[in-house]
Specification:
198 residues; alpha/beta; Rossmann fold; 16% strand; globular; transferase; flavoprotein
């Protein structure tokens, strides 16, 4: 039996790759296993937003997350033999962070043309947690209808909208708020922000 303390994280081509990076770091810190999938557009955004050298992708992943921990499993988009492509593989669920509108559309319509989309489809068909963190503005009607469609079939939408009641002092505070809300929704303890009333 596989370890249920495992999540899949998908990073797509929407702006805000840092949200996905921080989430993976926090999950590993909390002793969760992570299956990581990054789309081609996701790699491009990581290069543009962070000036990362993405020519050696596994080297960069190891630098960001330490694959030596034995808790991180990186998969390419075409790796349909990955365990997460099957509903028989037990895990806690999946977060797509940030979620581009193209990926949202594919998930909403059950396209399953790559491993990220297939894994999201598995989460929905198996009744497991699927969280999408869209990072787009403004939304058009197609975006909104796709978000509603995913919500209707069991997915949860957590827009990348940081709060300000915790008196953020830095960019990190804003990033941590969004990632903390994701961790709350998947039941993972964290200390990323001060809660209202604390």
């Amino acid at each position: 039996m596989s370890n249920p303390k495992i999540f899949t994280v998908g990073i797509t081509g929407a702006s805000g790759a840092v949200y996905g990076i921080r989430l993976v770091q926090e999950l590993l810190k909390a002793d969760y296993g992570v299956h990581l999938i990054i789309t081609e557009a996701g790699w491009q955004v990581m290069k543009e937003e962070h000036q990362f050298d993405t020519s050696d992708r596994e080297k960069l992943i190891n630098k960001l997350f330490s694959m030596d921990s034995g808790k991180l499993y990186y998969h390419t988009l075409r790796d349909f033999t990955a365990p997460i492509a099957s509903g028989s593989y037990r895990n806690e669920g999946m977060v797509v962070i940030p979620c581009s509108m193209g990926t949202l559309s594919s998930i909403a319509n059950g396209t399953s043309s790559n491993l990220l989309e297939r894994t999201a489809d598995v989460m929905l068909k198996e009744g497991r947690k699927l969280l999408l963190v869209p990072r787009e503005t403004p939304f058009n009607q197609i975006h909104l209808e796709n978000l509603l469609q995913v919500s209707k079939v069991g997915g949860k939408i957590i827009p990348a909208m940081p709060g300000f009641y915790h008196q953020p002092k830095s960019m990190d505070d804003l990033i941590n708020f969004v990632v903390g809300k994701v961790l709350d929704s998947i039941g993972v303890d964290h200390q990323l922000f001060t809660r209202w009333g604390d």
